Every structure is written in C-alpha cells, then in structure tokens.
Amino acid sequence: MAIIDATPTQPQTSTGAASRVPDRRRFGVLVLAAGAGSLLGRSALAQPAPDEVRVIDFEWIDAARDRTVPARFYWPAASTRKGPVPLIVFSHGLGGSRKGYSYLGEGWSARGVASLHIQHVGSDETLWRGNPLLLLDRLGGAADEREAIERTRDVSFGLDRLLQRDSPFHAAIDRKRIVAAGHSFGANTTLIVTGAQVIRDGKPLGFRDPRFTASIVISAPPFYGETDLAAVLASVDVPTLHITTTEDTIRIPGRYSPVQDRIDVYTAIPTSRKTLVVFQGGPHNVFTDRSLQNGGPLNPLVKRATAEVGLAFLELVHKSDPAPLEDWSETWKPILAAAPTPFQVDMPTSARKRRA
To answer: For the chain, does the N or the C end have fewer beta carbons within 10 angstroms?
Structure first.
C-alpha cells in the first residue's frame, strides 16, 4: 500500500468523466464573462476578520509510538458558534505541514466549523531539507506503507487529545459531526481512517476510526501497489465529497497518476452517498497554500470554492439539506467542469419550507 503524491510537472486531462468538459479556450471566456471579482462577490463564504478565528498550535507527543504530532487548531469565534461545534480533522499532502491549507481552516472556522490540521512528521516539510541528492530516497521512505499507517494513527491520536476530558474543547465539539479531510497523500489518509483496507497474509489490514461521520477527499492518488481498488475501498461507507481538477496530474520518477485516478477512486467508493466536484483547470497543487504557477487567476477562485463546498457538503450530510450544495453549484458554475449532484436525502420539513 505504498502511497505518494508530488507536484505535477505537466498538466494532463484524462479520459472519462473529467475529460467531458469545456476546453481551455471556452473556460477562459467563461471566467472573463463572470469576472473573478464577481464570483468572489457572489460567494456565500464571508472572508474571516482577524478576530473571528482563534488559531492554536499544539505540540503533542504520542508516547506509545515515541512520535511527535504537531497540530494547528482553528476555533470559531463565539459569534459564529451555535451549540456544539462541528469538527474537520485535516491531513496534509506529502511535504506539507500544519501551517498549510490555511484558507480552509480560516474559511471553515469563520462559518462556525472548527478544524484540526495534523502535521505528519514522517512525511512533512522536512523532506525538502537536507542533501538534494537524497531527496528521492526521502520521498520514497515518506510514502511507503509504514508511514501511511502512522499517518492514520496521527489523525486518531490528534482527535483523542482534542476530545479528552482535560481538553478545554471537550464539551464544545459535536461528536456526531466529526469529519475527516485531506489533500493528496492526506486524501489517502482520510480514506484509510474511514474504512479503506488491504489484505496482508490473508487478513484485512485497516485503521478505521468510527468517530468520523463523513470525509472530504481532495485529489486522492491511487493506492499504489494495490491491483483491486474496489476491494481496497469496499468498506468505506461514510458520505464522501471528492474534489479534483481537469489538470490534477501527479508526476515524479517512478510514480505517475493521471486525472482519471481521482475519478476511479470516486467511482470505486461503494456507497451512493458520494458526490464529485471537478474544477476546469488548475494543477495538483492548486489546493495547497502555494499560489505561484499554480493555476494563475484561477488559484484563489478554486481555494474559495473548495472551502465553501466543504461547508455545503456538511449541510447535506448532517442536516439533510441539499440547498447549499445546489446554490454553490450555481454560484461557481463558470469554473466547474463537473458540478456535484446532491445524493438522496430525507429533507426535514424546515428545509423544505425554505426551498418553497
């Protein structure tokens, strides 16, 4: 179950669902017609003011594994909290850190959803330091099966610490609304903690954490070395939101993953409670905090839209209300190659009245 992600060197559009989309020229016309400012202005997600987001860094140590687990916690201001607070636990991609994906932490917490960003010390930003001639060796070690397992344990350990009785957030977090999320290698981590497993020595090997009620899977690589993706994902039964782009290609020596792999992961999830978002354009790293040469003018739009669609997805999953996702699709239509379709839910009476 070796898993890896990397910065793509050449964009590539795959065949399949993601390829049946407008070409780049039409996309440019759409964006010019809509206007970047117009899209951001119509967006339902308010930009967080400095006093709306409380950011706390933790330096935890898992004594049982003798492993450091740093984390950054985004906690909503009292004005945005309404009862017990939903929580998203986020896992970064290869070479990332707890400081990355800040646009998600800030955007979600500004709307009353807390997020805990775990840093995985075996596959974090330290990979880029040291002798550049040994970089490939470091990448290979960081992306092997052992580190994939340790990452899932990092996520569960971080959640344990946040929910333990001596935590100041113990009573404030809604245990019924805890969601796993991640980008790239972190998307694989998310799938593992929500049910993905492999067979080793004739026995299933899995690290599912039943506390997670849903997952947000951004740019998931395939499970390298596994030949039956459907079998690996057969036990993933929580609602899932999958996010990718038409240029979401991964390339490093010895590893190549086209856009179609993201579609294949989505397709292999056995539950019908899943939805797929495909943005028109933007490379694999458009979802990171990096901006230079990562999508150009599209970059801030994709980031803003990604933060928003996560919130809309939570409304669908936890409140059975498809309206926010439908509204999101209409707002961001100019930059979408494939808009998400809400899965079947039993809409509460209050939600039906709002839509009437």
So the answer is: C
pLDDT (tens digit per residue) in 212-264: 999 999 999 988 778 889 999 999 999 999 999 999 998 765 568 899 999 99
What is the C-alpha separation between 354 and 351, in angstroms, rounded? 5
